[in-house]
Amino acid sequence: MATDTLTSTPPRAARPPVRKGAASRPPGQRALVASPTTWFVWFAVAVFFVLLLGILTSVVVDSLGKSWFGSWLPEVFTFSWYAAAWERFGMAHVIGVTLLVAVSVIVVSVLVGVPAAYMLARRSFPFKRTISLLFLLPVLMPPITYGIPLATVMYNMGLGRTLLAVILVNLVPSVPFVIMTMTPFIEQINPSIENAARMSGATMRTVFTRILAPLLVPGILAAAVLVLVRTVGMFELTFLVSGPQSDTLVVAIYRAMTAAGGGESRPLISSMAVVYTVTMMIILVIALRFISPTQLVARVKESRED
Amino acid sequence: MSTPRAARSTASLRHRLAERGIDLSLLMLVPAVVLTTALFIYPFSYGIGLTFQPNPGIQEQWGGGVLANYRAFFGDAFLFDSIWITMRLALPAALFNVLASIPVAFKLRHRFRGKKLLTTLLVLPITLGTVLTAQGLQIFAGRQGWLNNVLVGGGLVDEPLKLVNNYWGVMFSLIISGFPFAFLLISSYLSGIDPSIDAAARTMGAGWFERFRRITLPLLAPGLATTFILTFVLAFSVFPSARLVGDAMGETRVMALMAYRAFGEQNDYPMASTVAIIMGVVELLVVAVVLLWRSFLYKGSTGGKG
């Protein structure tokens, strides 16, 4: 390839004619026949998708089938597992708890996180680096390392197995997460807009409610959806402090799978897992409509570089 | 700040503090700092203190006074080996996720039809969660699952492969949940590299491998390090999958499982905290090594990024 480029005299032909028929192609258009590496990558991606699809479909089929042993498909298809799981595990209650926890965590972490993110983005003050580090640490540590001491404190204070404890433990990674995603987002808002408002006599509160809040809505939505996904999917922390009345969906499924005596029957668990996944996918699809994930991560990256 | 009464400046104390960045708006930081301190710093320090207050049982068995918990951890092969077991799972999984994401992210960098769909599909497994992945792996890759049916039916293997309830089950689960995450991060880092640098190298006659090795890789390396750290943290705290698709008391006896065993099953909170803290220290050591490596890379290579 290198020699090809060197021999081609006009600089416009920088894209070297490596394959047959490439010469007739206008620059910028790509060959139809891909190179072996491309084929290999596509093959690997395909294998990944087949595995993924297999895992997903087998759970769905399992949740819909009766007496499925060793054969390709179950003998009978039925929806009865869903009804049974709904009754057996009090799914209405579990889903209610999950949503309640998720909404509380979102509201508190946005209310607490956004002002802090604003300060980190706009001001310089003493100990700024220390405070940034304080917000970074919970994201860097594995949840279980601080989850266990935290749960111990909760049990000592008599908060164990309560809804409040579940909400509080989920705030630990969520608040820093909101701060980390919102700081770069606020940084890219032009500060002269706020200055103009202040020049015109707006107080800090007015600046926040009338100027910043509308500009921040997309960022807050993105952060809220990501916190929602994280909270609904958070297993380790919730599991440590939750009890029968405060289990979220993931924890309830895990408990059903590992219950004494070999766990609940498999299709019952599968149907719960399907309910969980469908919920999560709906959330993610909505999330992807609001945010471009790569863009958000790129912003987070920039904030990490300093 | 210590001599606010000094009369040499005519400006008020409030004004002079504001010049140093201290004013009432700092109050906006207070909720986040209080919350993080109360729910993260305090429990963490409490947990560290707890490790030096061993339960009488441990003290009797291992001796060593206040250090009995540590003696127990490092003396008991059942506990101590979990460090090595965790590393053996988390390091290869994180490495694989990062290395496999690079070519895929490269191929998906270009514009083509269905790119958004493919990206969404690759990112979607984030929502599956460990519990569903575990259930799916049990059914799909189990002895009687579709995967083994195909392999045996196609004559590829003589008898069903044992793919779950061992090391490989957990490894698959880590790849399924970690790869989309790594891919998302790396493709965003890749999109942050100015394509004109690559184009310049191409004009000067560099082949694809040379361009990758001398241009893209050095620019991407800091991002790769960050991605490695984040996927490593995810894999390191593997807990539900180690129990559900692993061999919880043998091959996949990871540290998180040991910490939970002491916490939930033995109600030995000091010991649980000890395992959790050691886990955090080991994890931070790995992160520190990667960051150190990154700091060398960063200085050497991105000087000309501009």
Shape estimate of chain B: flat
| Number of individual domains of chain A | 2
* Rounded Rg of chain A: 26 Å
Low-confidence stretches of chain B: 299-306
Helix content of chain B: over 70%
* Low-confidence residue ranges of chain A: 1-24, 294-306
Mean pLDDT of chain B: 84
Figure out the total of helices of chain A. 13
- Radius of gyration of chain B, whole Å: 26 Å
- Looking at CATH, the homologous superfamily of the largest domain in chain B is MetI-like
Estimated share of beta-strand residues of chain A:
under 5%
CATH secondary-structure class of the largest domain in chain A: Mainly Alpha
How would you explain this protein's 3D organization?
The complex is a heterodimer of chains A (306) and B (306). Chain A is mainly alpha-helical and 306 residues long. Chain A folds into 2 domains: 36-78, no CATH class; 84-305, Orthogonal Bundle (MetI-like fold). Chain A has helices at 2-7, 36-64, 80-88, 91-122, 128-140, 143-156, 163-187, 191-199, 204-233, 236-241, 249-258, 266-290, 293-305; strands at 65-66, 76-77. The longest helix of chain A is centred in the middle third of the chain and has 32 residues, at 91-122. By secondary structure, chain B is an all-alpha fold. Chain B folds into 2 domains: 38-75, no CATH class; 80-304, MetI-like fold (Orthogonal Bundle). Helix content of chain B is 71%, strand content 0%. Chain B has 14 helices and no strands. Chain B has helices spanning 13-19, 30-51, 56-62, 68-75, 77-107, 115-123, 129-140, 146-153, 167-191, 195-203, 208-236, 240-244, 255-265, 269-301. Residues 299-306 of chain B have low confidence and may be disordered. The chains are: A mainly alpha (306), B mainly alpha (306). Chains A and B meet through helix 1, helix 2, helix 4, helix 5 and helix 6 of A and helix 2, helix 5, helix 6, helix 7 and helix 8 of B.
